[in-house]
Write a structure and sequence with these properties.
By secondary structure, the protein is an alpha+beta fold. The chain has one helix and five strands; from the N terminus they run E-H-E-E-E-E. The chain starts with 9 loop residues before the first strand and ends in a 6-residue tail after the last strand.
Length: 71
């Protein structure tokens, strides 16, 4: 059982301009590229203002609906 990878949508929301802050730029690019090939999407420069029972609200007011949020 579990979650089918074909049905799951993974969105990594990051308040900074890149993932893995503090790591070497080449490593960051490699990691992001590998994850994107697995259909992980990235939303950079997007601080989360609030986590609700329906998803998250970004600082700019955009609401992203989600059934599961991992912080």
């Amino acid at each position: 059982l579990g979650i089918s990878p074909h049905k799951a949508k993974i969105l990594n929301i990051e308040s900074l301009p890149n993932i893995l802050a503090g790591f070497d730029g080449d490593l960051i690019d490699y990691a992001q590229s590998c994850l994107e090939k697995k259909s992980v999407r990235f939303l950079l420069n997007s601080p989360i203002k609030e986590c609700t029972s329906h998803g998250v609200i970004l600082n700019d007011g955009q609401e992203i609906k989600a059934k599961t949020v991992v912080w």
